[in-house]
Amino acid sequence: xxxxxxxxxxxxxxxxxxxxxxxxxxxxxxxxxxxxxxxxxxxxxxxxxxxxxxxxxxxxxxxxxxxxxxxxxxxxxxxxxxxxxxxxxxxxxxxxxxxxxxxxxxxxxxxxxxxxxxxxxxxxxxxxxxxxxxxxxxxxxxxxxxxxxxxxxxxxxxxxxx
Length: 162
Hints:
- It comes from Patagioenas fasciata monilis.
- GO terms for molecular function: interleukin-18 binding.
- InterPro entries: Ig-like_dom, Ig-like_dom_sf, Ig-like_fold, IL18BP, IL18BP-like_dom.
- The structure is a single chain.
- This protein is an alpha+beta fold.
- It has a domain at 42-147: Immunoglobulin-like.
- Helix content is 19%, strand content 34%.
- Strand 3 and strand 4 form a beta hairpin.
- 13% of the residues are buried.
């Protein structure tokens, strides 16, 4: 007598949470891609190595570039991107006032160093109040670094008594 066919994969995955099945499948896929490479070496978590800002606070109306550099042992499975207030920059700034540059890769041992710039065409007060975050993401993990600008101090007011 033949064994009954296995239950469809969709029936054996967790339910009750939208996207739970997709997350499980993505995790399994990532692990399947990464595990053959892990046998010969210990892989490091991806990490941001440099977040480069100008030493001076940004001036309103000027062009500005912020650079993010990250290291990864899985370059073909690693993403480096910027968020603004938790949203993708191109969605937050559809007018193009803030945009990401291309991802540049430089070999580093068995891994790679990734570099991605964030470009401001004309820095504004809105940008000063937005939380920008550089994110490096791979199947091994995630690392983030936030950009913080100190708002300019208000000009002292001269009070006159009279």
